[in-house]
Please model this.
Amino acid sequence: MAVAAGQPLLRVRDLARYFPVTGGIIRRTVGHLKAVDGVSFDLEAGQTLGLVGESGCGKSTLGRTILRLHDPCRGQVVLDGMDITALSGKALKQKRRDMQMIFQDPFASLSPRRTVMQILREPLDIHRIGRREDRRRQVEALLETVGLSPPMASRYPHEFSGGQRQRIGIARALALNPKFIVADEAVSALDVSVQAQILNLITDLQERFGIAFLFITHDLGVVRHVSHRVAVMYLGRIVESAPVDRLFEHPHHPYTRALLSAIPSPEPGRKRIRIILPGEVPSPANPPPGCPFHPRCPEAMDICRTRVPKTLAVDAAGLHQVSCHLHDPDHVPSASGRPPSTENS
Model:
């Protein structure tokens, strides 16, 4: 089944993933850690959605749940017109050809006991892609695609640098010609100069093959370089999403403004006003009532402590969405003294 014209490649609706918290002598379930708690977004074919947020906010769990590496507790994930949350067995195995992952650690994600040829040929063998004698040539072509030479196929992962290992990880993700790839902190373990090379490689591959990416990172500079849209995540929820330039120039959620204030200014003589958030991120095993950000929010109102905000569009086109009572016309934010947003651009 192919995605209909005008429809997004990936549709995520109210996705949740909870992990049981056990206690006592018999280790019975006493609660749940809400790693992902009702996430919804769309991703167009050939586009990149940058997912940002503090460590522990649920970014990696969201990516793994979308790929069915974790089973969701509720919600729906529709990839290329097919609901993958309803698949199992052979049907899910077949659909995995369309969705792959680039892992954060380029060494831990590659088997040290296998050569690069064996690593890259494995997905081709599992899905029986091409004839057996042709798979070696396919592996060599994959290595050339990511900027490595075919003779390197006989080496083991420990014989490569970190950047080269990540190129191998990218080649493995490309082996089955996927339509969607989750890149989970794909450059955070690399040197800055190598990061730029890998980011340029990912951008080139997207333009060449039309792959959609969910790019998970905590580096806002990286997000601005590779993303078409940005989603900001806090304590298992997406609190703001917008086209990349609009979010950086017109952030609406107090948490987004605090994150952006931490980016160093590129102009030496111009100082950026830092927004220092008090306290720590609450535990997802015991999230606060109402808006999850209200204990740290400098603009919190009484309603923020009791009611979860709706996700509302703050522009006429509906491309910029924010989950905050400050922008809900039903609630006058008297505590902050700012009226609700009336932007139309």
Summary: Residues 334-345 have pLDDT under 50 and may be disordered. The CA atoms of residues 84 and 120 lie 25 Å apart. The chain has nine helices and twelve strands. The longest strand covers residues 28-43.
